[in-house]
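ARCHIVE CARD
CATEGORY: sequence design from structure
SOURCE FIELD: tokenized fold
FIELD CONTENT:
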């Protein structure tokens, strides 16, 4: 019998990681999942708790794995955690660890809109992380996701909470677009990138087939609910994001929304030959509640 595939996952308690671990566990992949805190493990999963991803303790546990999927990332800074140290330097540390552990494949989730000529600090840290993955000489796939939709993603949780308070804030006009992709498609594509050679050493946008304005997305999410949409002037939204860390949107959430980034779905479709789930349909079914 063939040896089962062994995959390492960093940031194991996060939204994408949790859904991906469940999917891979059901596919009988052997998982080595690393998190800073304790979590409930799935079948075929070895749980590793590591506060600082220290190489000495991790290397023997992950040696010779078939792949490492790096899912650590932050989208908001504070004086305690910043983009340079988490998005870039920690990625560099994981890349070095992967080289020393002779990992065969690296998968990294960057961000839609990342490019060499970006001026946004968040994207710059992701670009530097991408470069460190590419320079590793390890076979890689880099995904640049738009908004990933699931029952338990941060924005879905925000919308559900806002419905209870009968008020959803829409920054500016809400006319800027997103290109959401369902978490079920994302987990399939990440697995495919490991087993399908066509994904080797490629950077690809991770986007769904539909471009939807932010305002429309919220309306579709609400279905027939009468929750109040509260449009706030974009200058006011930025002011609140800058001055109040508890405001519904962070500065870079606003940058990404207003940035109106659209990806290349066709390329992803050609690469994967998958039928993508329609996020509009998903919203209509109410499956996110
Ligand atoms: N979800 C989206 O729509 C989306 C869109 C574009 C890009 N992405 C990227 O995809 C990746 C996964 O996204 P996600 O939505 O799953 O994010 P998430 O739920 O916020 O999970 C990220 C994980 O990163 C780890 N982490 C955060 N701060 C850390 C720190 N200081 N030190 C060590 N680990 C830390 C945490 O893992 P533990 O708690 O297990 O330690 C956390 O659960 C991220 O890189 C994100 O930027 C996501």
């Amino acid at each position: 019998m063939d040896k089962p595939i062994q995959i390492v996952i960093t940031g194991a308690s996060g939204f994408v990681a949790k859904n991906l671990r469940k999917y891979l566990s059901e596919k009988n992949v052997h998982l080595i999942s690393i998190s800073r805190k304790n979590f409930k493990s799935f079948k075929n999963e070895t749980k590793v708790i590591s506060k600082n991803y220290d190489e000495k303790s991790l290397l023997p546990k992950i040696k010779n794995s078939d792949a490492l999927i790096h899912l650590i990332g932050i989208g908001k800074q504070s004086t305690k955690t910043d983009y340079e140290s988490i998005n870039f330097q920690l990625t560099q540390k994981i890349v070095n660890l992967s080289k020393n552990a002779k990992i065969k494949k690296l998968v990294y989730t960057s961000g839609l809109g990342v490019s060499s000529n970006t001026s946004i600090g968040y994207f710059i840290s992701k670009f530097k992380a991408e470069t460190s993955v590419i320079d590793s000489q390890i076979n890689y796939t880099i995904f640049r996701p738009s908004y990933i939709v699931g029952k338990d993603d941060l924005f879905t949780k925000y919308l559900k909470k806002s419905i209870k308070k009968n008020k959803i804030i829409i920054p500016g006009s809400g006319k800027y677009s997103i290109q959401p992709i369902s978490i079920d498609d994302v987990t399939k594509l990440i697995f495919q990138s490991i087993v399908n050679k066509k994904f080797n050493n490629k950077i690809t946008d991770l986007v769904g087939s539909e471009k939807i304005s932010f305002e429309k997305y919220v309306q579709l999410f609400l279905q027939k609910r009468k929750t109040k949409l509260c449009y706030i002037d974009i200058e006011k939204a930025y002011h609140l994001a800058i001055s109040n860390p508890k405001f519904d949107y962070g500065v870079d959430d606003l940058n990404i929304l207003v940035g109106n980034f659209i990806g290349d779905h066709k390329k992803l479709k050609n690469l994967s030959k998958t039928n993508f789930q329609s996020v509009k349909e998903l919203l209509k079914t109410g499956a996110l509640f």
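CARD ANNOTATION: Residues 11-17, 35-37, 71-75, 81, 86, 109, 111, 145, 147-148, 153 surround NAP (CB under 6 Å). The longest strand covers residues 139-145.
SHELF: design records, drawer C
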